[in-house]
Amino acid sequence: MEQKVEKSSITLWLIDDVKDVIWKAIILVILYAVFKLGDILLLTSPGLISIYKIYMGYSILRFIVDIIVTFLTYKNTRYFYNEEEIFLKKGGLTVSETYIPLKRVQHLEVTQTFFSRMFKLAEVEFYTAGDNHTLQYLQKEKAMDLKNYIIERVQQKESVYDSAENDKGDTENECNG
């Protein structure tokens, strides 16, 4: 059964966007101060002021696009898991679908950022041999349930594999003995 991430994840993604805007605003303030100092020292050229305006316009446009992408990301993010695999679908403008076989999962990590703790959300990161995959902003309880389910399944499969290896070793010993 496909499941969606929590609706409050929109707020967290927007908070990330706002953090980016704040950094850009700090850069703009610094640039503005440099240009004002240049005016005082009569060093400012029209080209530098144009760069400042272009950067400000770009920052505003980027923030608007980020808001649209955030809502698309929420709409497109889904996941499900069963005995054999984990399926992740996520993305804003570009949507990716990833199937992760449980036998390939090497370890899991459940993480809560400062802001995600406020909303009782967490992200689950799946590590495989060649990559890692993140499922953002599940309810903390769901994230822990998913982690425990996968650990349990992987351990079951390992115990079945170990039993099969032991049986194989016993059969070889009987043949040689």
Q: Count the strands?
A: 7
**Gyration radius over CA:** 25 Å
CATH superfamily of the largest domain: Pleckstrin-homology domain (PH domain)/Phosphotyrosine-binding domain (PTB)
Strand line-up across the major sheet: 1-2-3-4
Report the sheet with the most strands, covering strand number, pairing sense and barrel closure: 4 strands, antiparallel
Distance, first to last CA: 51 Å
Average pLDDT metric = 83
DSSP helical segment count: 4
Proportion of residues in β-strands: 15-25%
Here the CATH topology of the largest domain equals: PH-domain like
Q: In CATH terms, what is the architecture of the largest domain?
A: Roll
The shape, in one word, is elongated
- List low-confidence stretches: none
Number of structural units classed as domains: 2
Which structural class matches the secondary elements?
alpha+beta
Helix fraction by DSSP (H/I, runs of at least 4): 55-70%
Explain this structure.
This protein has helices at residues 9-40, 46-76, 114-118, 140-176; strands at 3-4, 78-81, 85-91, 95-101, 107-111, 121-127, 132-139. The protein has 177 residues and is an alpha+beta fold. The chain has a 4-stranded antiparallel β-sheet with strand order 1-2-3-4. The chain is built from 4 helices and 7 strands; from the N terminus they run βααββββαββα. The relative contact order is 0.12. A hairpin with a 4-residue loop joins β6 (121-127) and β7 (132-139). It folds into 2 domains: 3-75; 82-169, Pleckstrin-homology domain (PH domain)/Phosphotyrosine-binding domain (PTB) (PH-domain like), CATH 2.30.29.30.
